[in-house]
From TrEMBL:
Spans traversing the lipid bilayer: none
Top enzyme category: oxidoreductase
Protein's recorded name: D-3-phosphoglycerate dehydrogenase
EC number from the UniProt entry: 1.1.1.95
Pathway listed: Amino-acid biosynthesis; L-serine biosynthesis; L-serine from 3-phospho-D-glycerate: step 1/3
The reaction(s) this protein catalyses: (2R)-3-phosphoglycerate + NAD(+) = 3-phosphooxypyruvate + NADH + H(+); (R)-2-hydroxyglutarate + NAD(+) = 2-oxoglutarate + NADH + H(+)
Xref: CDD domains: ACT_3PGDH-xct, PGDH_4
Organism annotation: Caldicellulosiruptor bescii (strain ATCC BAA-1888 / DSM 6725 / KCTC 15123 / Z-1320) (Anaerocellum thermophilum)
SUPFAM superfamilies documented for this protein: ACT-like (SSF55021), Formate/glycerate dehydrogenase catalytic domain-like (SSF52283), NAD(P)-binding Rossmann-fold domains (SSF51735), Serine metabolism enzymes domain (SSF143548)
Physiological role: Catalyzes the reversible oxidation of 3-phospho-D-glycerate to 3-phosphonooxypyruvate, the first step of the phosphorylated L-serine biosynthesis pathway. Also catalyzes the reversible oxidation of 2-hydroxyglutarate to 2-oxoglutarate.
InterPro entries on file: ACT-like_dom_sf, ACT_dom, ASB_dom_sf, D-2-hydroxyacid_DH, D-isomer_2_OHA_DH_cat_dom, D-isomer_DH_CS, D-isomer_DH_CS1, D-isomer_DH_NAD-bd
Recorded coiled-coil stretches: none
A biological process term (GO) from this entry: L-serine biosynthetic process
Length: 531
């Protein structure tokens, strides 16, 4: 067994592989064509962030069984192409959570007490301490946006400073907030009451520009803001204005929407925020601790060794190891189950405290475990998001306080096989059902309405009053934005009452178009869903 390592990882990770009797070739600095030329010899590939593992490279890796990214994200690996080849992709999702949390705390102290500015003043021979009158954390209110693992670690540390800690995360159970002694609040309340706002959410369509001019206007004057999560969650131009206007007293950013080149000799970077004395910027240091680098190297080395020895990877971001024939058989069901989770959470934007999954017909019992995990993965990707995979989704659901019930029955009506998912929220119970025929997944029951549609990349989910002219109104508005409706499913249970439409469209509708649809007479609800 041979492993190719194309970027430097900690020696501790290399040693784990060698101690398992695995041959390791460390070849740092190879070009893309050079890797493609030799990758066919190897059973595993370990990269960090510089190596772009695209479809071409994956096809060249005819013997690859596992690709490992020594870090949290997986942006530089074509996971879909790897999955099609039956290659497991793993990462190290928890390797740097402590490092990120501690950096957040360090930056918080820095902007409350102006530590970096005071240090630079002393370096320049100016020891006037009256220039740096700080503010105490004690008895102030800290608002945490995103209450996942890092957000919870930060909360623990801020509470130890005597702060009142509130948090906004609509996808986290009340039990988790109670466990950490943190107040669950809505977004506007957090903006209005916080003396400190710290961000711990991934960048998605939902969180991009989450904090911009409108949100700054709701904040306390003198608020301080920290972002060690993802660039782009804060609108940097609006932050600059809010600081100049005195709304924001200070800010600390470890991430920027457009990040600089981290090689000094190639640096041609400018950001207006760097001109402000009350802004602290660090060069994406979230994972830059000795421990974090060792953690990620050790984690992926163990994962690679497990796969090559015939075991299961705990941090697989795509699929467990299936024989090629089995993979081809189960794939449409996996895609259907994951789509069902994604459709529910996007349509409802509500926390489900219980998810019941019923498998009907001849679905292989060995496959149902993975189908359940796929459905939970789809649901959780819109809450805990970028660390969710097929292996850890069940554990993460438990951590979120979700009761998961799985059952099987022989009867499946007129369909050979069927998956039914029942989502229980604090207000209602909603059900989705799907099946597979012609080797593709189909949704056949959409929250109590009989339909038959294939989940697609872009879908409009619409509730409307059942009356003439609705289809034309929707088609006209979508057409105004240059987007074509590929298919449309319309269903009603009773004439003249509520109906649903599911439209497959050729692109993502802008927010302006969604608002226009919502404000159209007869339309009750509109969701732009993406798979």
């Amino acid at each position: 067994m041979k492993v190719l390592v194309t970027e430097r990882i900690a020696k501790e990770g290399i040693d784990i592989l060698k101690n398992e009797g695995i041959e390791v070739d460390e070849k740092v600095g190879l070009s893309h064509p050079e890797i493609c030329d030799i990758i066919g010899e190897y059973d595993a590939l370990i990269v960090r962030s510089a190596t772009k593992v695209n479809e071409e490279m994956i096809k060249c890796g005819k013997n690859l069984k596992v690709i490992a990214r020594a870090g949290v994200g997986i942006d530089n690996v074509d996971v879909e192409a790897a999955t099609k080849q039956g290659i497991i992709v793993v990462n190290a999702p928890d390797g740097n959570i402590m490092a990120a949390a501690e950096l957040t705390i360090g930056l918080i102290f820095s902007i409350f007490r102006y530590i970096p500015q005071a240090y630079m003043s002393c370096k320049q021979g100016d020891f006037r301490r009256n220039k740096f009158k700080g503010v105490e954390l004690y008895e102030k209110t800290a608002g945490i946006i995103g209450f996942g693992k890092i957000g919870a670690l930060v909360a623990e540390r801020l509470k130890a400073c005597g702060m009142r800690v509130i948090a906004y995360d609509p996808y986290v159970s009340d039990e988790k907030f109670k466990k950490y002694g943190v107040e669950k609040v809505d977004f506007d309340t957090l903006l209005k009451e916080s003396d400190l706002i710290t961000i711990h959410t991934p960048k998605t369509k939902e969180t991009y520009n989450l904090i911009s001019e409108k949100e700054f206007k709701k904040m306390k004057k003198g608020v301080r803001i920290v972002n060690c999560a993802r660039g782009g969650v804060i609108n940097e131009n609006d932050l600059y204005i809010a600081i100049k206007e005195g709304i924001v007293a200070a800010a600390a950013l470890d991430v920027l929407e457009k990040e600089p080149n981290f090689e000094l000799e190639k640096q041609e970077y400018h950001n207006p925020l760097l001109e402000l004395d009350n802004v602290v910027i660090t060069p994406h240091l979230g994972a830059s601790t000795q421990e974090a680098q060792v953690n990620v190297a050790v984690s992926v080395a163990k994962e690679v060794a497990a796969v090559l020895k015939g075991g299961i990877a705990k941090n697989a971001v795509n699929l467990p190891a299936f024989e090629k024939e089995k993979l081809e058989e189960i794939m449409p069901y996996l895609e259907l189950a994951e789509a069902m989770g994604k459709i529910f959470i996007q349509a409802e934007r509500a926390f489900a405290n219980k998810i019941e999954i019923v498998y009907s017909g001849q679905i292989d019992e060995k496959a149902t475990t993975w189908l359940t995990r796929a459905l939970l993965k789809g649901y959780l990707e819109f809450s805990v998001q970028d660390n969710v995979n097929y292996v850890n989704s069940q554990l993460l659901a438990k951590e979120q306080g979700i009761e998961v019930i799985e059952s099987k029955k022989e009867e499946s009506g007129k369909f050979k096989n069927m998956i039914t998912a029942r989502f229980t929220t604090s207000e209602k119970v909603l059900e989705l059902s799907g099946t597979v025929y012609n080797n593709e997944g189909r949704i056949i029951d959409f929250f109590g309405y009989k339909v038959d549609f294939k989940p697609e990349k872009y879908m409009l989910l619409i509730q409307n009053i059942d009356k003439p002219g609705m289809i034309g109104k929707i088609g006209t508005i979508v057409g105004e934005y240059g987007i074509n409706i590929a298919t449309m499913q319309v269903s009603r249970n009773k004439k003249g009452e509520k109906a649903v439409m599911v439209c497959e469209i050729d692109g993502e509708l802008p927010d302006e178009a969604i608002e226009k649809l919502k404000n159209t007479d007869g339309i009750l609800r509109v969701t732009m869903a993406k798979l």
